Task: inverse folding
């Protein structure tokens, strides 16, 4: 008795530690990522009254229970990101607890699969570390709720089935039925709530019905007494009554949502079974923050899963006539199988007609996946122990089996825990796996917005998510007004949006649904100047400059430039030649096709300082991608608009504009020809003047990757950005000897500087040996510090060419500042960053 108490205490302590781990992982950095569109919809919908929630949910693709629950949660805890998402974090932690309980219950007493507590603890640990579950435990949507209610319903079902199995011989049916009444109520209630959470959750109920039918058949085949058959009939009546109650409780909502379900569009590409199975294994094992390709780690998960699936074979027995019969204890394993493969196979079957694969719909069957993994651990540990047992002396058998049962689970656990933690780290910190960042979009617009600007939201539904973060005063225009898009009405709306505006910020999401013909963006490309097109996850921020007057199509500056005997530049228009940092330079190019083109070309438009550093850039296919070169006809003239955003904190001065074309596939520029002679690979247009900024820009729009605050005399180094030249948007691009490192320093004058300064940049190896030294001045002297005004922020760009003979290794970039003309050091040298050369 004392040993049992100690064992139970140990299990409880371990379970508490696992639950604390689960809660910690689900709360860690829960506010780090922005709400994406569907989360913003959840918050907005949950903030309405219950009747409105029900009406809106009818037209949604999800039933209303989660919104009801979130409605009351918001009243208690508010609508901050932490408050909203903490509901999912709590449900995700409770799901881990349910996984333990369900794993312990379903681990039948078969020696080859471990104890119930062991299977339950391993399953709970795998669930606690599951990147897939952690992801949706930090999302304000109903998927983790459906997984929790699905596990609760399955637990109640397994308890019911186990109780009926044990009570088949009981004669006092009234008493036993009364004792199980709370279980009946719990099962029916959890199943009804499950159906009101997500439509696909019905697959769990289907799996339960298949399991029940199998149990009835197995029982009738192994029990022949009249009383026992009557008991089976009674169980069947009770089950049918329960299912009828669940069905009739759900039927009213199903009738309301029938039209929406019938018109549910395809949401994925057609499925191929091997690819479908491999992707599900990846998501269930390592989550969404790993690449969708074969991974050797998945082989380990596959072995554990297959071992867990094979464990029930121990429940099959062979009789004296060599006939395989089903043991009653086989049923828990069948439940595990159906719990996992019922929803999975249903999704695959339905997708054969209308592709609907989305891994999050299958989150509700992940508890069974973790239980099967845990059973696989138990099976492998026991089998390894028995193999080792056969190769050692008899007196060491017990110790050997105990050692193997301890070591193998630890090894297996490490093979699961470490990849899971690596995947979680990618989810927490790698921007490639982050949700759509409406927060960053809203903050950017707030930082750069001016009076007279406007915001266009291409899908009216996402205005709620954007408005959650945006607190500025610019007007919001949701377009198109309806689906399918009305072209005439939408064009009239767009003209109204542009009327009297300086810039338009277009927030574009799911354009394939809201504007499949790309009408809105195409119209804006023709009637305004696209200056920026940046992705924030799956949502784009596109910035347009609105011309002061209608585009007449005339050529302001005629030229005749031949690009590779394929394209002729007839001329260009540049209505504004003086801009300030943060302004958009408006450039119209006039092309003419000289010959048919089988290759697609992109146009580059660059604004350069005297040293070739970019201060404005726009590379795109002609017409914003709508007039690709392969569809040009010989002699056809194309009017092509470009907006060039002048980077914030650009020093004042004269800047040149270069344009040209390069191959989309090979990156080779079309040569500029004069007769048959190649004279250049770019065309220089007339220069423009950048004026001093009216006010210092917000730091958030500067693009500093690393912020500092180091004072050198009258100026402060605010931060810097360093990357391989040409790979500024790929910070992890490998560096090799001969590459050029592009360094951008951001300075701010504390007061009007009284002296000029010089910079010394050094590259040192790990031993402190200097490998490269470069002397210069901020902006290479284009804008001397003596001309800086108090508070002014200046962007300062430098190129560091790495020597060709530089060996691979780790290097540091050091910066020191000197006063001119005497060379007195201002402050101490600082290490900016470390570089790793391949």
Result:
């Amino acid at each position: 008795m004392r040993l049992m108490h100690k064992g139970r205490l140990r299990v409880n302590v371990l379970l508490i530690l696992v639950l604390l781990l689960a809660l910690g992982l689900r709360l860690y950095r829960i506010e780090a990522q922005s709400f994406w569109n569907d989360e913003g919809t959840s918050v907005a919908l949950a903030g309405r009254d219950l009747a409105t929630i029900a009406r809106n949910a009818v037209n949604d693709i999800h039933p209303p229970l989660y919104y009801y629950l979130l409605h009351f949660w918001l009243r208690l805890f508010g609508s901050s990101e932490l408050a909203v998402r903490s509901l999912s974090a709590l449900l995700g932690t409770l799901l881990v607890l349910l996984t333990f309980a369900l794993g312990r219950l379903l681990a039948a007493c078969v020696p080859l699969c471990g104890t119930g507590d062991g299977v339950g603890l391993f399953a709970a640990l795998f669930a606690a570390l599951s990147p897939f579950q952690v992801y949706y435990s930090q999302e304000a949507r109903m998927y983790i709720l459906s997984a929790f209610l699905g596990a609760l319903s399955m637990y109640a079902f397994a308890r019911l089935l186990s109780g009926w199995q044990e009570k088949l011989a009981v004669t006092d049916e009234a008493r036993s039925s009364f004792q199980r009444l709370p279980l009946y109520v719990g099962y029916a209630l959890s199943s009804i709530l499950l159906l009101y959470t997500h439509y696909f959750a019905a697959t769990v109920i289907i799996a339960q019905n298949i399991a029940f039918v199998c149990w009835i058949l197995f029982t009738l085949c192994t029990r022949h007494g009249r009383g026992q058959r009557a008991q089976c009939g009674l169980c069947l009546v009770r089950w049918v009554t329960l299912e009828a109650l669940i069905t009739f409780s759900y039927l009213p909502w199903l009738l309301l949502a029938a039209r929406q379900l019938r018109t549910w569009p395809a949401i994925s590409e057609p499925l191929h079974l091997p690819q479908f199975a491999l992707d599900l294994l990846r998501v269930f094992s390592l989550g969404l923050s790993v690449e969708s390709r074969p991974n050797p780690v998945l082989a380990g998960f596959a072995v554990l899963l297959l071992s867990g699936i094979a464990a029930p074979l121990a429940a099959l027995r062979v009789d004296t006539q060599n006939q395989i019969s089903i043991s009653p204890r086989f049923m828990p394993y069948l439940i595990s199988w159906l719990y996992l493969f019922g929803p999975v196979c249903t999704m695959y079957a339905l997708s054969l007609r209308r592709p609907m694969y989305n891994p999050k719909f299958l989150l509700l069957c992940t508890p069974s996946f973790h239980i099967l993994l845990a059973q696989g651990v138990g099976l492998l540990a026991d089998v390894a122990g028995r193999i080792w047992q056969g190769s050692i002396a008899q007196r060491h058998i017990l110790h050997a089996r105990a050692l193997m049962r301890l070591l193998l689970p630890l090894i297996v656990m490490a093979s699961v825990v470490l990849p899971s933690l690596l995947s979680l780290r990618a989810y927490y910190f790698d921007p490639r796996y982050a949700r759509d960042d409406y927060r960053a979009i809203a903050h950017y617009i707030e930082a750069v917005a001016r009076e007279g600007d406007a915001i266009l939201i291409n899908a009216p539904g996402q205005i709620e998510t954007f408005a959650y973060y945006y607190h500025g005063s610019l007007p919001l225009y949701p377009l198109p007004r309806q689906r399918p898009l009305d072209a005439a009405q939408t064009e009239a709306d767009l003209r109204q949006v542009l009327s009297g505006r300086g810039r338009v910020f277009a927030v574009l999401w799911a354009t394939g649904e809201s504007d499949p013909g790309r009408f809105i963006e195409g119209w804006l490309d023709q009637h305004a100047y696209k200056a920026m097109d940046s992705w924030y996850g799956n949502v784009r921020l596109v910035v347009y400059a609105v011309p002061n007057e209608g585009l007449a199509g005339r050529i302001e500056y005629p030229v005749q430039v031949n690009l590779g005997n394929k394209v002729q530049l007839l001329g260009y228009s540049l209505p504004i030649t003086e801009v300030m940092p943060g302004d958009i330079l408006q450039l119209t190019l006039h092309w003419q096709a000289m010959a048919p083109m089988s290759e697609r070309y992109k146009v580059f438009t660059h604004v350069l300082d005297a040293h070739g550093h970019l201060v404005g850039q726009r590379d795109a296919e002609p017409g914003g991608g709508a007039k690709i070169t392969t569809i040009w006809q010989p002699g056809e003239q194309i009017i092509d608009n470009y907006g060039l955003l002048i980077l914030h904190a650009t020093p004042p001065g004269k800047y040149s504009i270069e344009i040209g074309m390069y191959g989309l596939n090979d990156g080779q520029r079309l040569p500029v020809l004069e007769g048959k002679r190649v004279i250049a690979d770019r065309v220089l247009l007339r220069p423009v003047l950048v004026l001093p900024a009216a006010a210092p820009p917000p730091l958030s729009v500067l693009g500093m990757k690393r912020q500092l605050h180091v004072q050198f005399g009258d100026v402060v180094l605010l931060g810097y950005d360093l990357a391989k030249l040409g790979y500024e948007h790929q910070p992890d691009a490998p560096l090799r000897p001969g590459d050029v490192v592009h360094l951008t320093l951001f300075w701010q004058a504390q007061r009007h500087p009284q002296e000029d300064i010089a910079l010394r940049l050094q590259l040192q190896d790990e031993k402190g040996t200097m490998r490269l030294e470069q002397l210069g001045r901020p902006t290479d002297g284009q804008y001397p510090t003596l001309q800086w005004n108090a508070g002014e922020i200046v962007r300062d760009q430098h190129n560091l060419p790495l020597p060709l003979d530089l060996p691979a290794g780790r290097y540091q970039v050091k910066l020191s500042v000197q006063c001119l003309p005497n060379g007195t050091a201002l402050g101490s040298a600082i290490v900016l960053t470390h570089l790793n050369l391949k």
